């Protein structure tokens, strides 16, 4: 159709649409300045960039090949960063990925309309509070000298001395997973609730008439119906395995539990912005992006084969 | 749907499930709400007294001193002001600009749409990472200025995609008739599109405003050198991380308290309540909108 369009007619359409193109163009300029140029800026990972060189320096500094990647891969912190980043993400995937699904199914099985709304409203709320607030709350609950949890446990005689949950590295993974679950489970359920709401009620009715119990309905109607949504969110979660939660790690991490709380993104921030080793930190960042990208692609391919659902 | 289901005889399984779900949900409510309640009561309790513990249900020594301390501290007040300015300016700019671009892109038969979409998707899925971004902002001269809070956040590809799918739902005849009446596109945008898009604006507004209000890393990354640009979130992070390392003993905390009855912790509790208050107040009114908004993104995105 478009190919057949007369040239003059195309010009006319374009002229008529000109103001709209103006709007879009403003967006393109923005993306060029704040998205595309920074993207091209990853090239500094292959250079010895000095901040005094400014914007043009990004593209003209001394090319050094894979020097910074080699330095990063042989850094003595590298194995620790990998272990923390992956362990925390995998633990989150195992423990906090299935919970929103279960929670959404439970909400959809609730009878009372008002109570259902209350539960939903309250469960979304922590998502809107920052990790700063959450870490402040965790501090008031788990600190060794004023924390409520330690205080109550001491009073009950369950422990002899306070447990340093916020300090001792061995508790950090648990703390990270637990706080993530507390903050995001309700919010994560929204998308599954929508998927469940889209299931035709007649399916449930006829199943019930045929004598199916509610658990059977969940197993044979609800779960198969939301399979596609689960698959897509799982792909996204696997793609995110390598990018952990920066805010959480910065706020729950401290000098005492650093051996378990330091993840790749924290390292990049500290080395890059803190110490000014821009090229080295950019190399670490690029390493992370590339692995994440490979993870998404593979998860997508596997999901396409296994369940037929895929992102692209 | 529920009414029809009730006609079917309730079995023992139904009753067990209803009870189990009710109990679990009530537990979840408690676990979610009690921490906030606890912060509230501590914020209204005498700071030094709170160090003795044992406060679980209501303040033991009621006081407003923590809030007074917060409100009389020029440092906290200035941070509050910066947070408000940044949230209002940032959210307004994000909505106006992102929706404008989205409106342009939502037009049917827009030429070069394929190209525009590719650029949008590339920018959504890829980024240069923190370091190149920082260096670029630095070279634009944005670092350590107020602008760094509101300009780089003006446009969001994710919000733009939400906006496009929302605008496509508006009957196109409305635009066409306005055009026939000789209205300019910018006027159609401001007097037809925006007024018809309240649910969209509510959703994006809530997300953008919460994002601005809660962000501490933008200060840490891009404006660390200027004390006058510190936000409430950033300041709070400072206080909390200092408190978190339990090196200060109870006795030291009591001695360190310069004001007699408040401690850094108790003032921090008041600051936390003041920080979450705006969100708690606005959120229930916007809830029904954003649930819809998310769906829009989930289906189309």
From TrEMBL, chain A:
The chain crosses the membrane at residues 20-46, 80-107, 128-148, 185-204, 225-246, 280-302. It is found in: Cell membrane; Membrane. Pfam families: BPD_transp_1. This is Carbohydrate ABC transporter membrane protein 1, CUT1 family. Belongs to the binding-protein-dependent transport system permease family. PROSITE patterns: ABC_TM1. Its main location: membrane. Gene3D superfamilies: MetI-like. GO terms for biological process: transmembrane transport. Keywords: Membrane, Transmembrane, Transmembrane helix, Transport. Residues 82-299 form the ABC transmembrane type-1 domain. It is a multi-pass membrane protein. The lineage of its organism: Bacteria, Bacillati, Bacillota, Clostridia, Lachnospirales. InterPro entries: MetI-like (IPR000515), MetI-like_sf (IPR035906). One of its GO terms (cellular component) is plasma membrane.
Automatic annotation (TrEMBL), chain B:
PROSITE patterns: ABC_TM1 (PS50928). Residues 80-280 form the ABC transmembrane type-1 domain. One of its GO terms (biological process) is transmembrane transport. The keyword Hydrolase does not apply. It comes from the Bacteria. Keywords: Cell membrane, Membrane, Transmembrane, Transmembrane helix, Transport. InterPro entries: MetI-like (IPR000515), MetI-like_sf (IPR035906). It is found in: Cell membrane. The keyword Transport applies. The chain crosses the membrane at residues 20-44, 76-103, 115-134, 146-167, 188-210, 267-286. Its main location: membrane. Coiled coil: none annotated. GO terms for cellular component: plasma membrane. It is a multi-pass membrane protein. PANTHER family: ABC TRANSPORTER PERMEASE PROTEIN MG189-RELATED-RELATED, POLYGALACTURONAN_RHAMNOGALACTURONAN TRANSPORT SYSTEM PERMEASE PROTEIN YTCP. Belongs to the binding-protein-dependent transport system permease family. This is Carbohydrate ABC transporter membrane protein 2, CUT1 family.
């Amino acid at each position: 159709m478009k190919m057949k369009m007369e040239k003059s007619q195309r010009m006319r359409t374009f002229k008529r649409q000109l103001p709209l193109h103006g709007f879009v163009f403003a967006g393109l300029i923005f993306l060029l300045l704040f998205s595309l140029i920074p993207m091209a800026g990853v090239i500094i990972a292959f250079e010895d960039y000095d901040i005094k060189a400014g914007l043009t320096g990004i593209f003209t500094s001394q090319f050094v090949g894979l020097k910074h990647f080699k330095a990063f891969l042989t850094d003595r912190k590298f194995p620790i960063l990998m272990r923390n980043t992956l362990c925390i993400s995998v633990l989150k995937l195992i423990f906090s990925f299935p919970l929103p699904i279960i929670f959404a199914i439970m909400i959809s099985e609730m009878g009372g309309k008002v109570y259902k709304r209350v539960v939903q409203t309250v469960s979304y709320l922590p998502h809107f509070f920052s990790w700063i607030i959450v870490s402040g709350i965790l501090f008031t609950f788990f600190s060794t000298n004023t924390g409520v949890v330690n205080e109550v446990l001491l009073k009950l005689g369950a422990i002899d001395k306070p447990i340093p949950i916020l300090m001792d590295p061995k508790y950090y993974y648990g703390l990270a997973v637990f706080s993530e679950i507390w903050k995001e489970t309700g919010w994560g359920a929204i998308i599954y609730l929508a998927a469940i709401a889209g299931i035709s009620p007649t399916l449930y009715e006829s199943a019930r008439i045929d004598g199916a119990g509610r658990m059977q309905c969940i197993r044979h109607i609800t779960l198969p119906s939301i399979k596609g949504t689960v698959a897509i969110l799982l792909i996204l979660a696997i793609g995110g395995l390598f990018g952990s939660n920066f805010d959480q790690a910065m706020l729950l991490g401290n000098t005492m539990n650093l051996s378990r709380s330091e993840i790749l993104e924290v390292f990049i921030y500290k080395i890059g912005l803190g110490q000014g080793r821009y090229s080295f930190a950019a190399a670490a960042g690029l390493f992370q992006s590339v692995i994440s990208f490979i993870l998404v692609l593979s998860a997508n391919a596997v999901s396409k084969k296994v369940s037929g659902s895929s992102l692209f | 749907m529920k009414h029809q289901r009730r006609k079917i005889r309730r079995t023992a399984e139904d009753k067990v499930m209803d009870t189990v779900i009710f109990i679990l949900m009530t537990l979840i409510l408690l676990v979610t709400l009690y921490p906030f309640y606890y912060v509230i009561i501590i914020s209204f309790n005498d700071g030094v007294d709170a160090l003795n513990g044992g406060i679980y249900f209501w303040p033991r020594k009621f006081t407003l001193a923590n809030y007074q301390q917060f409100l009389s501290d020029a440092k906290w007040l200035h941070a509050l002001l910066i947070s408000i300015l940044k949230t209002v300016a940032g959210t307004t700019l994000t909505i106006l600009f992102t929706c404008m671009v989205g409106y342009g892109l939502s037009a049917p038969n827009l030429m070069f749409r394929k190209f525009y979409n590719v650029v949008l998707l590339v920018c959504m899925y890829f980024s240069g990472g923190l370091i190149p971004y920082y260096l670029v902002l630095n070279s634009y001269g944005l670092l350590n200025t107020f602008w760094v809070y509101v300009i780089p956040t003006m446009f969001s590809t994710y919000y733009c995609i939400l906006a496009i799918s929302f605008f496509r739902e508006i009957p196109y005849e409305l635009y066409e008739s306005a055009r026939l009446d000789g209205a300019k596109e910018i006027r159609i945008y401001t007097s037809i599109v925006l007024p018809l898009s309240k649910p969209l604006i509510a959703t994006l507004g809530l997300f953008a405003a919460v994002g601005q209000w809660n962000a501490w890393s933008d200060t840490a990354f891009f404006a660390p050198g200027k004390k006058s640009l510190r936000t409430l979130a950033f300041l709070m992070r400072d206080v909390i991380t200092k408190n978190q390392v339990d090196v200060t003993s109870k006795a030291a905390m009591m001695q360190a308290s310069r004001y007699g009855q408040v401690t850094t912790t108790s003032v921090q509790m008041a600051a936390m309540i003041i920080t979450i208050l705006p969100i708690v107040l606005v959120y229930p009114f916007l809830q029904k909108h954003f649930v819809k908004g998310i769906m829009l993104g989930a289906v189309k995105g």
